[in-house]
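subagent[fold] <- orchestrator: predict structure for attached chain, return tokens only, no commentary.
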Amino acid sequence: MVGPGAEATIRFMDRVTAVGEMTVMGTMRGPFFKAGYDTARFRQAKRELLALIVEWAPRVPRQRASAVFGTQPILRDGEALFRPIAGTAHAAQAGVLLRSLAGGLPMEDVAPVTLGAKTSPYPVLFLGTLAELREAAPALAAHPDLADLSEKYPAGDQFAVRFVTEPLPPRRGKEPLPEPGVSLVVVCPTPAAVERALDRLPRVVSRPRGLYSHWLPAHRED
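subagent[fold] -> orchestrator:
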């Protein structure tokens, strides 16, 4: 389609000019290369490229969902990095929230996690009131990064979003510390705040584009 060969729709060749060697477009006139811009050839090349994209679209792998909130990944390669807490009032809506962040791209089902006395609350997604967080995951609720949350803040239909990093024990000798887990806490004092969070959060995440993002909008999987 593009190149120096005779079969190329848009033909380029390296030419020596007054300012040095340059790659220029042109056509062959007998044994000679005639430099010049050809609008008709560009349009023909576009038609050939579009036809090639349509032909190869069924063979190209579908991009799986990825989503990032600021610098914190939430979805990666079609998998949620957080799991709703089973038994909480809004666990199902937390799963809906994660799926909505996919932007229509395929992702794995999200199964809630049951927190027991010895189960780490990292990484989880909590969606609900502060009182429920204290009951469902007391260790998570006691994290210093949530110390400013109270019955007065957030209030009404407002909500607070926090990424909470797992505290690590002191390092022993030369042993490397494990990678800390991160949990996503969305505190909503009222049902109206839950609905507001479900509506607003998908708008503020970014979705990294993959290699085939130029044609993906027309070839997404439901």
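orchestrator: received. Logging for downstream: Residues 213-222 have pLDDT under 50 and may be disordered. Residues 2-59 form one domain.
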